[in-house]
Amino acid sequence: MPFNEEQRKRMQLEQEQIKKNIKRIKHQILVLSGKGGVGKSSIAVNLAVWLSMKGRKVGLLDIDIHGPSVPKLLNLEQSELRGIGDKIEPISYSDKLKVISIGFLIQDENAALIWRGPMKHNVIKQFVSDVSWGSLDYLIVDCPPGTGDEPLTVVQLLGKADGAVVVTTPQQLAVTDVRKCITFCRQLNLPVLGVVENMSGFVCPHCNKRTDIFGGDGGRQMATDLDIPFLGGIPMDPNMVWAADMGRPFISYSNNSPAAKALNDAFEPLLR
């Protein structure tokens, strides 16, 4: 059905508002995965915190409508959004990191948001166009798993993002779904900046022996097959689980551990 003149004018006005609001954001990076449970939100949070530790001004946008993890991972669950004029003020995690999540609008942590596509589209559009992001060096977008409404909406709203970091785990069950995420990016002309293989083996803290619990090198092999950069593998660390539950980003809590060093090595090419 063709749009009438009033609808076209409204859509044009919305696009102009979005462009005006994000024009002072230098770089936009989406964190994606075709599979749930691979630690995508943890990678997004640690990337945002790592960039802020490097002195960059960072925004972290959580568009996982049905399972927002960012407030928990940053110990911001009690924070509430407030408005200033016609803008939404993001939550400040630090003087270098601002955060927005649907989780800040849900008072009952057991509540289920049963929303169809149009409602999800509208709230994501509001987070892009009506949040007072200000001047940022990086906007990191934590997307829900899959290739549905939310990632499609944010890619279209942002226009020209720098690209996507794709997260997987080593086993073929995950890699098979994550390959579809690569196809999604290519169909939307969204560059794939690289693949991070999370839960990439476990190194015993007592004997230093490595065990590949999920098998080995699935993410690296996928990157090779699809001719995209492999950013690195992040080994499993029990302290990473504890840090997530406590809302303490692992990259700052345990920066000398093998897992934290692996995160640093994986993120370094994104800064360059």
Structural account:
41% of the residues lie in helices and 23% in strands. With 272 residues, the protein is α/β, with parallel strands linked by helices. The chain has one domain (20-260): Rossmann fold (3-Layer(aba) Sandwich). Strand 8, helix 6 (172-187) and strand 9 form a beta-alpha-beta unit. Helix 6 packs parallel to helix 7 (218-226). The longest helix is centred in the N-terminal third of the chain and has 18 residues, at 5-22. The chain is globular. The model has no long low-confidence stretch (mean pLDDT 91).
Shape: globular
| Beta-strand residue fraction | 15-25%
* CATH superfamily placement: P-loop containing nucleotide triphosphate hydrolases
The number of E-state strands comes to: 11
Helix percent band: 40-55%
Oligomer: single chain
CATH architecture, by name, is: 3-Layer(aba) Sandwich
List unreliable stretches of 5+ residues. none
**Span between termini:** 45 Å
SS-based class: alpha/beta
Count up the helices. 10
Give the total of domains. 1
Mean pLDDT reading: 91
How is the biggest beta sheet arranged? 9 strands, mixed
- Return the CATH topology: Rossmann fold
- C-alpha Rg (nearest Å): 19 Å
Query: Which CATH class?
Result: Alpha Beta
Order of helices and strands: HEHEHEEEEHEHEHEEHEHHH
